[in-house]
Design brief:
By secondary structure, the chain is an alpha+beta fold. It contains eleven helices and 19 strands. Its cofactor is FAD.
Length: 346
């Protein structure tokens, strides 16, 4: 079937974003293969009206807050597939299509004996979105085991392979997010997962959970199960309560500011960085300012985790932004710390 027949008008994205916002896309197309994407690119170049539309690349919709009306052509990437691509003396090279569910992919790697990604269990979204945000949790970032990815350059039509260096990964950032957003459509991602595995138990919650369950020598699956249980105890299920996961990045501050906060708040949670700075727990800061459990008409702050904003029913992008800005202003005024929003407002 030709791509032009798959283009839909005024498509409701309510079920394609984890915050559950009803957003009307001017045009929508589901992409299931490279050949379809290439044909669509050709069509867009040939159609003057379509070529003028802004483009939105959509994966799992778990890291974006949508406006009610999007003048975009939305490319929903649903390229599937999982495989062991190769082996080296010290790693399993596994590849997954950009449309694969991230958590299901992590479980698949563990079930097949390819460890390494267990600390990133239960993170919502797709494999293709993981490099864009350089997702991370519990002492691990995606870049730690990233090998390479393939992406289609929508400007030139070239299928390009990106190495780790090419991606310019940073904390919750990459070239795909802050370089030229929308230029490259990620097709698949490869990971180099270690044959000599060591558990990463940097975060106390994980070690405490394993100890409480009498797991002295954890396996990768044990660590995954612990993180799944911890996340489920703190974070709402998007299928039940609309949310975008952690809404603010953990801020990096100077040692002086961290020491100042410790004098006022001895329980302030902080993690030393290699350059002498400290990473603070954004959720802890927000909770100290009294926002945990807050509710307005359509949006609120999750009662179990102040880092998570939630859809109380009928939320739109403007209401979410208003609440986020109010929290940012309050934390800055009371703590002297600037919080940066993690999801992208579209």
């Amino acid at each position: 079937m030709k791509p032009e027949y798959l283009l839909q008008q005024n498509f409701d994205l309510r079920h394609l974003n984890s915050f559950g916002i009803s957003a009307q896309a001017h045009r929508y197309v589901r992409i299931e293969s490279l050949s379809q994407l290439q044909a669509l690119r050709t069509q867009l170049q040939a159609d003057t009206d379509l070529s003028q539309l802004p483009r939105l690349i959509l994966g799992g919709g778990s890291n974006m807050i949508l406006s009610e009306h999007l003048p975009h052509i939305v490319l929903h990437i649903a390229i599937m597939g999982r495989q062991l691509k190769a082996e080296t003396s010290d790693a399993f090279i596994v590849r997954a299509g950009a449309g694969e569910n991230w958590h299901q992919f992590v479980l698949w790697t563990l079930a097949h004996g390819y460890p390494g990604l267990e600390n990133l269990s239960l993170i919502p979204g797709t494999v293709g979105a993981s490099p864009i945000q350089n997702i991370g949790a519990y002492g691990l970032e995606m870049q730690d085991y990233f090998d390479s990815l393939r992406a289609l350059d929508m400007q030139t039509g070239e299928v390009k392979t990106f190495t780790k260096q090419d991606c310019a990964f940073a904390y919750r950032d990459s070239i795909f997010k802050s370089g030229e957003p929308g230029r490259y459509v990620i097709l698949d991602v490869c990971f180099a997962l270690p044959k000599q595995w060591q558990a990463r138990l940097n975060y106390g919650d994980v070690a405490k959970y394993l100890q409480a369950h009498n797991v002295a020598t954890p396996t990768p699956i044990d660590v995954s199960n612990a993180i799944i249980a911890i996340r489920q105890s703190k974070l709402p299920d998007p299928a039940l309560i609309g949310n975008a996961g952690s809404f603010f990045k953990n801020p990096i501050v100077t040692a002086d500011l961290r020491d100042q906060l410790l004098r006022q708040y001895p329980a302030c949670v902080s993690y030393p960085q290699a350059n002498g700075d400290y990473k603070l727990a954004a959720g802890w800061l927000i909770e100290q300012c009294g926002w945990k459990g807050y509710s307005a008409a359509t949006v609120g702050v999750y009662e179990k985790q102040a880092l998570v904003l939630i859809n109380l029913g009928g939320a739109n992008g403007a209401a979410v932004k208003q609440l986020a800005q109010a929290i940012q202003a309050d934390v800055l005024a009371k703590m002297g710390v600037s919080l940066e929003v993690e999801p992208v407002f579209v």
